[in-house]
Design a protein that fits this description.
This protein is of the alpha/beta class and about 240 residues long. Helix content is about 30%, strand content about 30%. The strands form two sheets. Strands 7, 8, 9, 10, 11, 12 and 13 form a seven-stranded parallel sheet that branches. Strands 1-4-5-6-3-2 form a six-stranded mixed sheet. A hairpin with a 3-residue loop joins β5 and β6. It is elongated. It starts with a strand and ends with a helix.
Length: about 240
């Protein structure tokens, strides 16, 4: 069944606007009485179309339930900005696997170093990728791609999670040793192509961040977040 996201939901009605409304009517050729799923804040609403136009689709809510695709942990990915379009791939796969929020981060070894103003247009594209990944994977929310942040801000936010983790190329604790549990917040910090500077690792450790390893092989910066998120979701029963 086609699924869409909307913030315009009342007790009995869900309204879909903009390009999604056009897509429903023109591309999918849906008609009055057809069923579709509307998602908002982790809740899935089964609906039937009551009216349809290029500007809005009004649906009657038939039933609702909590989205089974949403993990019971809040996983936040802090990703050092990689070169070229690797961040597109990372955002797409991280959201398919259950990440709730993604912060692009500038670290000392980032080759790509866009400023906040220059990154804004790219962030809009990344948010669109996030939306499509959420639809494709059946998510009940649209995970957010945040504005780019610096290393110090990253460590500050990372330290506020229940399990602040740094995937360090020089190794660290195994993920199955740190007591990950459901209904917690997990922050995962991944480096760029050059990994992390020793001073950055030291600073993270001083601020309570746990360094973890992902095995005996050095993973690419676009492989490491996918591996880490997959393992975390599996260990917490969310795969």
């Amino acid at each position: 069944m086609p699924r869409f996201f909307s913030d315009n939901i009342s007790q009995d009605t869900a309204v879909i606007n903009g390009s999604d409304a056009v897509h429903i009517g023109r591309s999918l050729r849906m008609r009055l009485g057809d069923e579709l799923i509307v998602c908002n804040d982790g809740i899935e609403y089964t609906t039937t179309i009551q009216s349809i136009s290029d500007s809005e689709v009004v649906c009657e809510i038939v039933s609702s339930c909590k989205s089974s695709a949403e993990p019971d942990i809040d996983l936040i990915l802090f990703q050092a900005v990689p070169k070229s379009d690797k961040l597109d791939f990372i955002v797409q796969k991280a959201i398919e696997l259950g990440a709730k929020k993604i912060y692009p981060v500038i670290t000392s070894r980032c080759v790509s170093r866009p400023d906040k103003k220059g990154f804004d247009k790219k962030r809009q594209r990344l948010q669109k990728i996030a939306l499509e990944a959420a639809k494709q994977s059946g998510r009940g929310i649209i995970p957010h791609v945040e504005d780019i942040i610096d290393f110090n801000k990253c460590v500050e936010l990372l330290s506020q999670t229940d399990f602040p983790l740094m995937c360090y190329e020089k190794g660290g604790r195994n993920l199955n040793e740190i007591g990950l549990k459901s209904h917690s917040t997990v922050g995962v910090f991944i480096g760029s192509e050059g990994g992390f500077d020793q001073s950055e690792a030291d600073f993270c450790i001083q601020n309570g961040v746990i360094t973890i390893g992902l095995g005996n092989r050095i993973l690419r910066c676009e492989t490491a977040p996918i591996s880490a998120i997959s393992i975390i979701m599996n260990l917490t029963g969310n795969m």
